[in-house]
Amino acid sequence: MAPKLVTVLLLFFLVAAIPCAQSSEADNWATSKKFPKKTVTKLHAIRVAQAAGTQKSPTLFGLVMMADDPLTKTVDPNSELVGRAQGLYGSAGQQELGLIMAMNYGFTHGIYNGSSVSLLGKNPSTHPVREMAIVGGTGLFRFARGYAIAQTHWFDTNTGDAIVGYNVTVVN
């Protein structure tokens, strides 16, 4: 079966996917869908662990957070739900803020219902542009590999809320 190229746009833990080509008749049920607006949400995470020195560290080194956030179709948090972003991230840098991220973007609605994409990598969140690996997927994204380019669009220093764009390229 010939590989197919799929482009996925993630804006802070939300996913919209556009397949560029179909590889067989069995895949034809999954037709191409282009979303008119970008997908956006805020990350809400819960602290689950920290090192003894985390509170004294300027980078919060050792902090581990869990996330389970809605994936919506547009910027409006009340827009159509298309899935969930679930995973963890931890502060892994002692000299600069750098998060190690393991996230699963799972679709529960629409054309990609039941499929998911998995991201793993270091996210030096103070850099204007970051790259992380796509290490797998399920369903239509089975055997996925690729990369995500992340860029912060908005950050609230008081609450820690952020909107980060993830432009993801997946080949499976």
UniProtKB/TrEMBL annotation:
N-terminal signal peptide: 1-23
Subcellular location: Secreted, Extracellular space, Apoplast
Keyword vocabulary terms for this entry: Apoplast, Secreted, Signal
Gene Ontology cellular-component annotations: apoplast
Pfam family of the protein (one): Dirigent
Superkingdom of origin organism: Eukaryota
Function: Dirigent proteins impart stereoselectivity on the phenoxy radical-coupling reaction, yielding optically active lignans from two molecules of coniferyl alcohol in the biosynthesis of lignans, flavonolignans, and alkaloids and thus plays a central role in plant secondary metabolism.
Summary of subunit composition and partner proteins: Homodimer.
Sequence similarity: Belongs to the plant dirigent protein family.
Protein name: Dirigent protein
